[in-house]
Amino acid sequence: MTEVDIEKENAAIAKAYKQLLKVSYQTLSAADKKLIRKAFDVAVEAHKDQRRKSGEAYIFHPIAVAKIVAQEIGLDATCIAAALLHDVVEDNPDYTHDFIEETFGKTVSRIVDGLTKISSLSKETDVSTQAENFRKMLLTLNDDVRVIIIKIADRLHNMQTMDSMRADKQEKIASETLYIYAPLAHRIGLYNIKSELEDLGLKYTEPEVYQEIHNKIRESKEEQDIYIKAFSQVIVDSLDKEGLSYSIKGRPKSIYSIRRKMLKQGVSFDEVYDKFAVRIIYKSDFDNEKFLAWKIYSIVTDHFIPNPIRLRDWISSPKSTGYEALHITVMGPKGRWVEVQIRSERMNEIAEKGYAAHYKYKQGNAEDALDTWIDKLQEALESNETNAVDFVEQFKLNLYSKEIYVFSPKGDLKSLPKGATPLDFAFSIHTEIGMKTRGAKVNGKLVPLSHELQSGDQVEILTSENIRPNRNWLDYATTARARSKIKSSLKDEKKVVAEEGKEILRRKLKQLKIILDEKSINEMVLFFKLKTSLDLFYRVGIGSIDNPMLKDFASSRSNAFMSYIKSKIRKPTVVQNIDKDEITAKYDMLVFGKEEEKLDYKLSACCNPIPGDDVFGFLTINEGIKIHKKNCPNALSLQSNYAYRIMQAKWIDSSQQEFAAQITLSGIDNMGLVNNITRVISSNMHVNMKSISFQSDDGIFSGKINVIVKNSTMLKKLMENLKKINGIDKVARV
């Protein structure tokens, strides 16, 4: 570069820095400016030899990120300084965390440290590694939510300046943005940034689609502006008559949301009906906000007919992101739907700035939505039961989910994701209540735990001390919190079974003259094709590895030559961490319908489902039941055209499978007999009683019990225990 170029660049850097101070949402004191200046000087020095892919000086990137943080997100001087320094430690070994802490204090250092941690996550494209990285990144939320917010700003600037990158790199970064950063921005309440991230994500993942919608919006912009102006004019006169201070803006729908509507509703660009949106922002003091919002609502609906099912009142019960507004969809001129959003200036700032505006306007008693959310999130993060991919999927569900509002018996309002069940409600109140849920009443009526709650329901949870979660609960719970608690409870229960199993195994092996030690455990894990020792003990505990199987193992072991060859052949699959704490879900059985029946089936060639995939069965005319993945390209047409031929199907782990059996009893009737029978069944840990009926006829007693058990070993054990009851003569399985 020539000296003239360098001078020009330096002037541009100085100009960018001055602009940063000018656009800050917060008012900066002299001390703030000093802190920002110091951070700027360190950043300039640290990045002086670096250039970006586009060729410009690297320092423009931290300045741009700081500008997004200051202007669009509205954070304070501490965050602006941290944004300027966000790449310093990572890119320059001369600058350590200790140096940052000494120079800028603990808070800035903690934020920069969090940002460095995120950046140093491995860059492999493997899904599970990627998901694990996201989990680690989300864990930094607990250190300081500002870390994630600055990371979102960093990502936004990278997306804005991605043109000079390789196409495959662009696609990877854009997919990652749509996968996690846009939902995060949405959840933290940064709606404008979320829209921009989504649009840019679409631009690089589906460039043709993006360009086409972009051009159509541009073509129709003039007509839209005229339409919105005509629409607004009708309301303006009435609002002025009321002496309100307000502004009206047209709001274009984002390209990404138009695309999503087109896909979801299967319509063309011209048929997306609410491309028109108008935002009315009014001035008001805090006490009159609600009153004025409804006054404006009544003025708008005096002129235009509202769509009754599209009224959204987020003023009386704000979203869990803290978003407040009144949304109405009305029929505008020329028979077009127009969405009208009514917000006070305070609500508008919260909608645009999210976190920062919350703190500016925080009322003494207002529970801060973001803090509550982070607490909830923290629980989901800490339960490491789920694997990382499941976790991220679950997390995304809870990020984007629409909300419903339900009441507790005392009338407190709780927000839950759409599709939530009484079980989710129970866990959202307290883990202990969730764990002891026996049943639920919705609007005073008993409902199953799988009942889907609707907005406005009043939910009462019935608890019992001797209840504990069972596997079916995972089919009923939808929230990450409830699912992770249930999984960890089931896991604890499995560990208890495994402990018992270990002792049983020790006894059984002793009879076969084998000592239970690390070597024999290793051999059994390989012999039974399992992954961990816990698996082995658990399966012995529930009886799915029984005496004949252990005898087979003993005889294979006695053939020393064979086992030597086998161990040589199998060497590569030796279980590295045999003591790992997992009970493998060996998805090896497909079951159909609510009854979970086993039927004959074929796997379809169009999507090649494999065990563990989400699948459904389709009843063909000539080939019986064919299995398709839920996201199979043909799934949509099959489900819409032949809904009556669709069968629910799911893969299950054979060791988790439960079977129904019926036992008949007969004997001599005596006092307390029924009580003794039920006590024996309920004390048998792995047996679940479905139904029971007894009758007594002239002193002779007969009964039928339907139970759910994991396998025949358990059933035999139960029947033996029932036979021991005084008065019981016969116990038989039907």
TrEMBL record:
Domain of life assignment: Bacteria
Pfam families in the record: ACT_4 (PF13291), HD_4 (PF13328), RelA_SpoT (PF04607), TGS (PF02824)
Coiled coil region boundaries: none
Organism: Gelidibacter salicanalis
Domain HD: 58-159
All residue ranges annotated as the TGS domain in the record: 402-463
GO terms classed as biological process: guanosine tetraphosphate metabolic process
Gene Ontology CC annotation, any one: plasma membrane
Stated family: Belongs to the relA/spoT family.
Name under which the protein is recorded: Bifunctional (P)ppGpp synthetase/guanosine-3',5'-bis(Diphosphate) 3'-pyrophosphohydrolase
Function: In eubacteria ppGpp (guanosine 3'-diphosphate 5'-diphosphate) is a mediator of the stringent response that coordinates a variety of cellular activities in response to changes in nutritional abundance.
Pathway: Purine metabolism
